[in-house]
Design goal:
Structural class: mainly alpha
CATH architecture of one domain: Orthogonal Bundle
Shape: elongated
Length: about 325
DNA sequence: AAGAGTGTCAACCGCTACTAG
DNA sequence: CCTAGTAGCGGTTGACACTCT
């Protein structure tokens, strides 16, 4: 562990020498959580000192926001989230924190990482500048419809699986959701009417991304996962651990999950029951052979199609038509 | 089995904006 | 206004995990 002191603007040389860097230990996490549970967040520099942490205020803030907050959603980025990220990024560019506002529980850091490791990587494979119009068009006319299609497939397959499983009553994950009647019209993007070069995004349902986007996006695909997301310290949040745990304080309740959590203005207009039904779908599982991996969008096998699209797009740009 | 290569993501850095005194 | 403290953002790094040979 690197315990080298940092040169801060601020004052006390002794403190500076004690400042710690690198990965957080469980002990530090508990100190931070305990302190915030008692005193709330904010004023991070003094918080750090008062909590007895040899960390910068910045470091504490980051640790809390990106990792320890009870409402942080962990795990793979769902297909819907991918779609939303593509859509919002096409509109706002690298405004990660702004994009993150529309993906409840996701941090700007996580979205940024996703973009860099998946999207930029794929652009690189296609030898395409991620900021080019070409790349944006590929996203818009190829990848986003592809994502919508996969979301639909997964949803449809889930419905089939659900129907099947209700009659077989096994203990599978899909079966656990079998008492619901999943609506495979959950996302009803008018895919059949879409064609290359045509403005896509005509939607039949109420979903829209912020600012009246024309791309349909569902909310969290898996609320079950959301609520049971592998929190680093689940026992802590359920009040089982920690000498200084205060049952009267609200660590147990995710502070960012009010009743109208999903009534995000203009974004998540779906009714909660419908979403709760939908929540039982797990996009990462195979439903009757339909794989819905979060990575599937970027399958190498589809790079040829992408390349073809890019080349066609290039021709179009050069000639003014196809 | 082991080393190299690659991917992922937590954490850090530098910068800007905001605010209170 | 000016300054110091604080919060937040986006870019970057590095450690670790995983995969491939």
């Amino acid at each position: 562990m690197d315990e080298k002191g940092r040169n801060l603007n601020n004052n006390n040389m002794e403190d500076e020498m004690d400042l710690k860097r690198g990965p957080w230990t469980a002990e530090e996490d508990f100190k931070l959580m305990n302190y915030i549970a008692t005193h709330g967040e904010g004023r991070w520099n003094s918080l750090s000192r008062c909590a007895g942490l040899q960390r910068t205020g910045k470091s504490c803030r980051l640790r809390w926001l990106n990792y320890l907050r009870p409402d942080v959603r962990r795990g793979n980025i769902t297909l819907e989230e991918q779609l939303l990220i593509l859509e919002l990024h096409s509109r706002w560019g690298n405004r990660w924190s702004k994009i993150a506002q529309y993906l409840p529980g996701r941090t700007d850091n996580e979205i940024k990482n996703y973009w860099r490791t998946r999207v930029q990587k794929h652009a690189k494979q296609l030898k395409c500048d991620v900021n080019s119009q070409q790349f944006k068009d590929t996203m818009k006319y190829l990848w986003m419809p592809r994502l919508v299609e996969r979301i639909q497939s997964a949803s449809a397959a889930a419905t089939v699986a659900t129907t099947t499983n209700t009659t077989t009553t096994t203990g599978s994950a899909a079966t656990s959701s079998s008492n619901t009647t999943s609506n495979n019209q959950f996302m009803t993007y008018d895919y059949n009417n879409n064609s290359l070069g045509q403005q896509f995004g005509v939607v039949n349902n109420e979903y829209s991304t912020p600012e009246n986007s024309n791309v349909a996006v569902s909310p969290m695909s898996d609320l079950t996962e959301y609520y049971s997301a592998p929190n680093p310290y689940p026992e802590y949040y359920s009040g089982q651990v920690g000498n200084s745990y205060h049952p009267d304080q609200d660590l147990v309740v995710p502070q960012m999950l009010p009743d109208n959590y999903y009534d995000y203005p203009g974004l998540l207009d779906e009714d909660l029951p419908g979403m709760q039904e939908q929540s039982n779908l797990n996009w990462f599982e195979d439903f009757n052979g339909v794989t819905s991996s979060s990575d599937s969008l970027w399958n190498i096998g589809e790079s040829n199609e992408d390349l073809w699209f890019l080349q066609t797009q290039q021709q179009f740009n050069n000639n003014g038509n196809f």
